[in-house]
Amino acid sequence: GQQVMQIPQYQHVQEGEDFTTYCNSSTTLSNIQWYKQRPGGHPVFLIQLVKSGEVKKQKRLTFQFGEAKKNSSLHITATQTTDVGTYFCAGKGSNDYKLSFGAGTTVTVRA
Amino acid sequence: NAGVTQTPKFQVLKTGQSMTLQCAQDMNHEYMSWYRQDPGMGLRLIHYSVGAGITDQGEVPNGYNVSRSTTEDFPLRLLSAAPSQTSVYFCASSYSYAGNYGYTFGSGTRLTVV
Question: Is A42–B106 a contact, with Cβ atoms under 8 angstroms apart?
Answer without folding.
Answer: yes
